[in-house]
Write a structure and sequence with these properties.
Elements lengths: L2 H5 L1 E5 L5 H19 L4 H11 L5 E6 L2 E11 L2 E9 L8 H16 L3 E6 L3 H9 L3 E6 L5 E6 L5
Parallel strand pairs: 4-5
Antiparallel strand pairs: 1-2, 2-3, 3-4, 5-7, 6-7
């Protein structure tokens, strides 16, 4: 981990102009995993992205002012749900995701609710990160159980 990098991590609200960046990011960060489960079909993936892209709910992760990823978090009365976090491969392994997820762990802890997320079964690196941050597998779902539901309960529960 490069501590100087982590210090420069920021978030900004996504805008309509960020759609193409977020698609390219998704392709760079997730194509290997999507391909392993469903097969990567460019047109289908682009159409899926266009349906899912919601600048009001997405934030762009920056490092020293450079766009390096995205995060989407849904805050519910009874849990915090990390819908998506993606970091460009060349910026992975620098503690960026760890810092942001730890902040969500802290937020959920303050609220007294669990942090919940789903990870693809083939994404072993992300699964290991979530485990290191205290999340535990609580179930599997999706076609062929290809998604793992993970959860971190607040202290005292």
């Amino acid at each position: 981990m490069h501590s100087e990098d982590v210090e420069r991590v920021g978030l900004r609200q996504a805008s309509g102009e960020d759609g193409e960046f977020c698609y390219r990011l998704h392709k760079a960060a997730m194509k290997e995993y999507v391909d392993a489960i469903w097969g990567w079909e460019e047109q289908a993936q682009r159409e899926y992205h266009e349906r899912q892209y919601d600048p009001a709910r997405w934030q762009v992760i920056t490092l020293g002012g450079v766009d390096v990823g995205m995060i989407s978090v849904d805050r519910h009365p009874d849990h915090v749900y990390l819908g998506r976090i993606e970091v460009l491969p060349e910026y992975q392994g620098r503690g960026i995701g760890t810092r942001l997820i730890r902040a969500l762990v802290d937020e959920a802890e303050r609220k007294g609710v669990p942090l919940v997320l789903d990870v693809l079964v083939v994404n072993r690196r992300a699964y290991a990160l979530y485990q290191r941050l205290g999340l535990r597998e609580v179930g599997r779902h999706g076609d062929g159980d290809n998604k793992i539901r993970m959860r971190r309960e607040p202290s005292g529960r």
